[in-house]
Amino acid sequence: AQKVTQAQTEISVVEKEDVTLDCVYETRDTTYYLFWYKQPPSGELVFLIRRNSFDEQNEISGRYSWNFQKSTSSFNFTITASQVVDSAVYFCALSEAGSGYSTLTFGKGTMLLVSP
Amino acid sequence: DAEITQSPRHKITETGRQVTLACHQTWNHNNMFWYRQDLGHGLRLIHYSYGVQDTNKGEVSDGYSVSRSNTEDLPLTLESAASSQTSVYFCASSLGGSGTETQYFGPGTRLLVL
Fold it and tell me: Which residues of A are less than 8 Å from B89 in CB distance?
């Protein structure tokens, strides 16, 4: 069965610090997809990234970067030079391709608080 | 612009009442999902649909039902509301295929069962 663990329940940083959010997953499939979503205080869920298991290249988008390591079953998310607007709950999620239809399993989320 | 909407955004009801939460998407997505979000549990899947007339149970389906009569809508019904169903409910949709596509979420419905 698929499982996602976000061990950091809450992280507090000061603006301009770099911060890494950890995500560890479990799956028996060789083909799977990993996601990150952001939930700001307003409550909506915002899609950030989708990565398939065959693409281990790191991804960078502005101040955001993602490090995918199959050897450690991790898909970590780094925010460089954090800003107050980055304050949110961040969810990592996993979907196995397997056979037939799949569903998305979420971690319990990491709350990030960025102080000015 | 295409979007996914939920109504109502806030709802207060009493124990034992039937409640229906609406979800409507205009992306023409085949897949639709309902989740509940509770502190300490993250998001948990209630029901999902991979097309018209298709419905499936998720991790926490007891006490909930859905029906899919068209592509755009997946209403979630609480047959007899219980205080344990106080939660924030999110609807999501994705294009189609194997279920591994990106899901896009509605704004959520906050439900309080007294």
Answer: none
